[in-house]
Amino acid sequence: PRLPAATLLLARSRLALGALEAALESNRQAERFSPPPGRPQEARFWKGETLFKMKRYQEARAIYESILTEDAASPEAPEALYGIAWAELELKRREPAVAAFRKFLEAWPEHPSAPAATVTLARALGDLKRYSDAVALLVPFPTRYPGHPLAPDAAYLLGWSEVAAGKLPEGIRDLRKFLDAHPQHDLVSQARRTIVEALLRQGKKTELSQEYASLLKQAPPTAEGLYDAGVIAKYLGRIRDAEGAWKKLRSEFPHH
Fold this sequence. Notes:
Elements: H1 3-16, H2 20-32, H3 42-53, H4 57-70, H5 77-90, H6 94-107, H7 114-127, H8 131-138, H9 141-144, H10 151-164, H11 168-181, H12 188-202, H13 205-216, H14 223-235, H15 239-252
């Protein structure tokens, strides 16, 4: 009587270890038991997860879809819909992916994967140039998911999306909030670059001068910061300052 459960456990263990072909075979064996082991649709779900890891996205999607079609109340239903959304994204079908992520968030807003789904959906909306939709999605993130590890990514995406939507003052404000709150984040350079581009579009020379000074004060300096400082100085007509920033860039980052 323990063999079915042990077979499913073996399938999951092999998946976790990256032994995908072996995991798939164990999943198939688990599905042959009557009834299949685990919770309703669990064996089938893990077969879908294994196929997804094997980059067989169309097959994985079909399994996720079958779970929802045959048993929408299954405990695996939320993860199956989340899997459909990711499969669509991997298949480069962004509109269906957006629809699936939205459906997932509407049905299970408190699910542990909801914060990640929100950020991924916002990125997909950005790829589709639906920047205002991304902004509306991201604004409530800090209150809906306080302290979540993806909060910095959501904050950056909010500012970036606002700038892309033409809301330059709001985007600059929120990107600066992101920089103040997360000065060591991997997206800091991109945030500063977006701020510089937005300020250049606005043509506000006083703020550009302040941003120039801020970039030069970065410790340690970055290649992106020095380059952007040079761009600002050139825009402001301060050619010697621009040349100085770019000289320092070539000196400190000769291979950049």
